Amino acid sequence: MSGCADDNNEFFLLRPEWPLPEGVRSVITLRSAWTGPQRQLKLNDHEPRCPAGQDADAVSRPLSQSYGKGLKQSSRQRRVLARQLGSDISVQWLNQVHGAKVVEASFDDAQPDADASYSRAENLACAVMTADCLPVLIAVRDGSAVAAAHAGWRGLAAGVIGATVQALKVEPAMLSVYLGPAICARHFEVGSEVLSAFLEKPWIKTLARAGRLDRVFHPSRSRPGHYQGDLYALARLELQDLGVREIYGGEFCSYGQPRWFYSHRRGQDVGRTASLIWIAPA
Fold it and tell me: What's the pTM value of the predicted model, to 2 decimals?
């Protein structure tokens, strides 16, 4: 994609439909984003192609290990997005590592190694970036705190959702959760090692004893020993097991809706969808 965006361009934003507490805001960026010559949203810190002298594996490094031009464009686009949300809003970006570490968001420019953040401060947005993994947005129902978690299958298996709920230090029944755009089960074929990573989870054991494991891992019709993994169902089951009652979203597919979302499995680009949540001033 040639050309670059100037600082007057804005993003197309999806505003999730869920009953947010008064004063809490959430948005998700869409792929067809720029109104200027750069027509797609690339918020990650990678170059679209391998730099000269590097192999393909170099592009899959953590997001903070980037190459100059891509990082500058990414940083500029992040500033544009933050300004579009509101002139006083700061965004906590993360160097996502597919784990379960949760950090408290801060107003400085640090980008910690973590896969979730929470905030109790006004105008401080929690953000995660995804391209098939599941973004989980969480709000305390009285509007006192918000959180965002990056939950791919590794993060789900590691317990990132439970760790994020615990970090908020409220009863899970006081939470409202939105499951943002992720790859759906139809397009997410996985091997037995992914199933094995979840078999010790109490809520998976309950399904297995009831003979209902196919609710989250549907046996593949074409490849023996493989399954269609359902990230949405896995997240819902864990949230319900934790005691969360209000769970929304889960209607999109990052792979199957290429006009709207990025997909690592689709392999067409290295952009990311950003999902953000914050507390607006009263």
Answer: 0.85
